[in-house]
Amino acid sequence: MSGVVPTAPEQPAGEMENQTKPPDPRPDAPPEYNSHFVPGPPGTAVPQPAGFPGGLPMGYYSPQQPSTFPLYQPVGGTHPVQYQPGKYPVPNQPVPITWMPGPTPMANCPPGLEYLVQLDNIHVLQHFEPLEMVTRFETNNRYDIKNNSDQMVYIVTEDTDDFTRNAYRTLRPFVLRVTDCMGREIMTMQRPFRCTCCCFCCPSARQELEVQCPPGITIGFVAEHWNLCRAVYSIQNEKKENVMRVRGPCSTYGCGSDSVFEVKSLDGVSNIGSIIRKWNGLLSAMADADHFDIHFPLDLDVKMKAMIFGACFLIDFMYFERSPPQRSR
């Protein structure tokens, strides 16, 4: 018994590890544990919505998962982001314009007027400029020319300097440039300055519009005739020979109804067409946002169609162009 060396009592293995392992210096460290997560079988793939080959546009939520986060797509992808028009609009993207299909060139037709050969009715829509009402600064007029299918036919833009527009207002001389879907100027309309302070029956005081198609080649004129109670114009050819007559209503400032300008033959018997200024409610009374409907026979000479089209703008500037109100001093 004297040869046996006494030993310390055996301790469990867990207690020995606790004595040899140094304490964790990190405060409030989470306990170590082994994960018991077992991955399951892969689920079925959710198909992409129809019409979205690359997913939804940037920053939009999925319509099938309203609670998910936005899906951000890479900018430099090989395929453009497509979306259904009107449902997922992209900010700062211009609205696409639907143009009338371009016709083939025709003989004895000025280039660019082939569109009018196929039409018997066009709409002239003036752009509304809210800044004119706020700043009282006259800006260049702009018009959209459309057919009955709401397709764009032409774009008309005024080309007048700032001083002339704001000094002469509705009496200002102007140049209107008509462009097609390719941006080519196919027609030019010019109105010279005419003083109206003298007698109205004086020829030098009557308003006139020259129509050139193509630009630089005159195809006709629209000349005002003095009349005591109504607007009267004559449509002339390039030699200033009267071809048709335009007869307006007794009151062109009618409130609450359309203003009809009839296009008649020289003898006044045959009714050829009409220029109708549509009443658009409060917008027509307080702002420059006119809407004209122009009607003419389908088989009418295309140059005469262009002259009726030009007469619409002289009528607009003379009777329906409203200058911004001036501040009282």
Name of the CATH architecture of the domain at 113-320:
Alpha-Beta Barrel
What structural class do helix, strand and pairing data support?
Answer: alpha+beta
Number of helices: 6
Return the average pLDDT rounded to an integer: 77
Helix and strand succession? HHEHEEHEEEEEEEEHEH
The number of strands is: 12
What can be said about this structure in brief?
Belongs to the phospholipid scramblase family. The chain is an alpha+beta fold and 329 residues long. Helix content is 15%, strand content 23%.
What do you see in this structure?
By secondary structure, the chain is of the alpha+beta class. The protein has a domain at 113-320: Tubby Protein, Chain A (Alpha-Beta Barrel), CATH 3.20.90. It is 15% helix and 23% strand. Strands 1-2-3-4-5-6-7-8-9-10-11-12 form a 12-stranded antiparallel beta barrel. The longest helix is centred in the last third of the chain and has 19 residues, at 302-320. It is globular and about 105 Å long. The termini are far apart. Mean pLDDT is 77; it is low at 51-89.
